[in-house]
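Field reference: sequence -> structure
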Amino acid sequence: MLLRPLTPKDADACYALFHRTVHGGTGAFYGPEQRAAWAPVGGQAPESWPERLTSGFAICATRWGKIRGFFTMGHDGHIDFAYVALEEMGKGTAARLYDACEAEARRLGLTHMDTEASHLARRFFEKRGWQVVARQSVIREGVAIENFRMQKSW
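Structure field:
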């Protein structure tokens, strides 16, 4: 597995991975209506997707030339996207991507990071010393989707 920066050309592959992960990996926590609001079925990446992916620290993991996961982090330490392919879960892919983000946050002189984590991602972040600040519901397409505001300080 190789880590490399994301580019705007990676937008479609990242959106497909995001969509597949939401619909295939979060069913234990979110119902069909919630998953459809989070990642619309049959939907295409929003026009703003390439810019949103690459506006801060954006990194992906590739295996055999295919994107297997990606994380994005703003210059303020906010992790926006943290997704890995279903078949990569439990193989250390997310851990390597996360470690790169935390290393970048420390390099930037930040003293904390934050995110809004799904039920699935919450466990991943808690294992790395993150704490839940608040449980919240975000509204997408008129549907409430529960997630967790989390942070890690050092």
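Note: The longest strand covers residues 143-153.
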